[in-house]
Amino acid sequence: MADVHNPAQRSFxxxxxxxxxxxxxxxxxxxxxxxxFRFRTNVASLPGKPDIVLPKHRAVVLVHGCYWHxxxxxxxxxxxxxxxxxxxxxxxxxxxxxxxxAEALQENxxxxxxxxxxxxxxxxEATANRLSGEIWAI
Length: 138
Ligand SMILES: [Zn+2]
What we know:
Bound molecules: zinc ion
Distance between the termini: 49 Å
Number of strands: 4
């Protein structure tokens, strides 16, 4: 199949297809856990099925894959060369659902935080520190 990705990017993208228990997500969980946070994961009863839910802090952390969630300006937010219109529409659906889910959560009193996959890959500890600070700052 012809596409514009180099092998590293392709395997990065493929790794995102399962949508749960992916590597960056696991990494963030372990870093937050080490910082004393206790949470539930992939909570289906909440809008958007958030990845990490911290009931005690009334906070959720969404780990966004750069590819599916179209991280703006990110080198991982590529578009497949084959069947591009299909993908563009599919991506648009995901991108439209993100704020809807966040809004629904906020209306229910949840605070919503986002961690981008590339950020976690680049500087995992710093990302966990940032989130930790944001979660504690009420
Ligand atoms: Zn990114």
